[in-house]
Amino acid sequence: MISALTRLADWSARTPKRLWAVSFVLFFTIAASWSAATPLGASPDEHAHFIRAAAVARGQINGSEVMVAHKVAGIKGDFAETGVQLPEWYSELPKHHECYSWHAGTPASCAPDIGTSDEVVEVPTAAGRYHPAYYLLTGWPSLLVEGTKGLYLMRLMSALFCSLLLASAVVTASEWRRGRSLALLGVFTAATPMALFMAGMVNPSGGEIAAGILVWTGLLSILMSPDGSLLNRRLARVGVGGLVLINIRPLGLIWFAGAVCFGLLLAERGVLRSVLRRKAMWLWTGLLGLATVGALAWAAAHPDNSVIKIPKYLTTTEAARRTLGASEMYVEQMLGYFGWLDTPAPVVTWYVWLGVIAVVTVLGLMYARKREALALVAMLIAIVIVPVVGQTSQASKIGLVWQGRYLLPFAVGLPLMAVLIIARRMPEKGFPLRRLLGYFLPLLALGNAAAFFWTLRRFTVGISGPVIPYAAHWAPPGGWVLWTGVYTVAAFALVVPGLMRDRAPDAPPVLPPAGLLPGADGSQGPAVLSGALPEPDAGSHRQPRVTQVR
Fold first, then answer.
1. DSSP letter, residue 103
2. Which of 73, 108, 435, 475 could form a disulfide with 459 if both were Cys (CB 3.0 to 4.6 A apart)?
3. Minimal CA–CA distance to 150: which of 58, 84, 62, 64?
4. From CA 455, how far away is CA 34, in angstroms rounded?
């Protein structure tokens, strides 16, 4: 069985284009399954992103400021939103999900039908201050198809976009010559069920997380496994991921800078010098610099003028204490907390992901050198401290609004760093790599499929309904059985490439004619295949063994 899967994995990775295509199809299938099987608006703030995307597609990059009363995290306030001109039925989206969101026992069947009125009215959106690029990409289907079908197509565009980035991360990981199966394990672990869920929704978090995975994979590959022949394409992937990360959400610039800092800490000696000599490096640096200036200018031109009534008890110390106390919840949210953060993943999903991350982190610390161990420990600390610093600094203005997914584009660096340290430092013999992968990969697929089924069950019969939702009160297009089957097959197929064997070492050079071998006087013949001939061991008179290249 394992040997057959290994042959299938090797087949999928025979060429980078094939591996990219296979990975893209499977990631898209998974993300699109979330798109189809999740009720419209049943993810954080999706109604606001639907409205923003539809408006940007119609050329409404900006809009009038509208003050809307909200209660967020128990704190009341008048939030500054953006009013845009859209068909009236868009104004129904903000309340469409309220009958079942935050009520996990209530299935989604209680949601009313979305209207069909085409009368143009002003519709507010809380996403009006976000950069328009993502919304232009996802919103254009609303120009072609109206109503719920258009909303589902907008989701599929988000799934398509995120799958492009994730497939590129898989190909980048597969380019490691030694330990590339471990590198792939890092990508699959970083792509948590929450990351895949957000990829299928209209929400910039999905693209931000996918871009974070690509940036981390590309940077670590450049700096930890240098290969001159692959450098330009790796720089291009990091550049594309960086452009997305910087432009898609305000925090993206911080996450990109964090990935660069940790990557430099893990860099092989001398590799940075060779990278800086490449013209492509400076080209992408210039583009990222322009993107940074543009993102900062956009943020400065679109301030948040919300007026929030922060209670007096919410001091800086109290905010820090509460945020630190919620660390476990933030970790759970990064792994899987669906709907409007009202539907936790089953415990098997959390145990699988935490177990895999714990094992690879411990192994990484065991094999790591000092700088590498420092990087892993620093990342563990950062995952706890960054939310405390970030939320505490803003608590007096916006309250306690942090969510685990906000940190995920940065936190994906932990499993990626750990597995790549193991791949670089593990011993040639004695490391049970195939056994480790044989356990971890199917467990990740099982945890992923379990999270999907459990969430779909919550929407069909409620969290307290029967385990097998035969009498579903709500069903996605095509039915829950179809999407459960599609998702499960895709989840297990996705991890199969992780069983591929390492790339074969470079073939030895062809034996040149005897007259061109190094002479007794120490003179050298011409280089053969751009590689030097192996020399005999000191003190040995045996000729080196050279295999002819066929």
1. -
2. 108
3. 58
4. 10
Buried b / exposed e along 391-407 (16+ C-beta atoms within 10 A): bbeebeebbbebbbbbb
Q: CB count, 10 Å around CB of 49?
A: 28
Question: What is the DSSP pairing of strand 343-344 with strand 337-338?
Answer: antiparallel
Q: 534: which 2 tokens?
A: 């192996």
Q: What average pLDDT score do residues 533-540 get?
A: 36
Show the tokens assigned to 310: 């922060």
DSSP character at residue 89 = G
Coil, strand, or helix at residue 370?
helix
Continuous segment of H or E residues that includes residue 70: strand 64-72
Q: How many CB atoms lie within 10 A of CB 508?
A: 16
3-state SS, residue 479? coil
pLDDT at 13: 81
Lookup result for tokens 């004619």? 513
Q: Where are the beta strands (DSSP E) in 369-458?
A: none
pLDDT tens digit string along 210-219? 999 999 999 9
Let me know how many helices (H) and strands (E) the chain has, helices first. 21, 6
Token digits for 429?
């013999």
Nearest residue to 122 via CA among 79, 68, 77, 201 = 68
pLDDT digits (tens, 9 = 90+) for 122-138: 999 999 999 999 999 99
| Identity of the residue numbered 519 | G
Closest residue by Cα to residue 415 from 383, 451, 371: 383
Q: Is 412 helix (H, G, I), strand (E, B) or coil?
A: coil
> At a CB cut-off of 8 Å and minimum separation 6, what does 286 contact?
none
Arithmetic mean of pLDDT, 344-362: 96
Angle (nearest 5°) at CA 280 between 275 and 284: 100
3-state SS assignment for residue 99 = coil
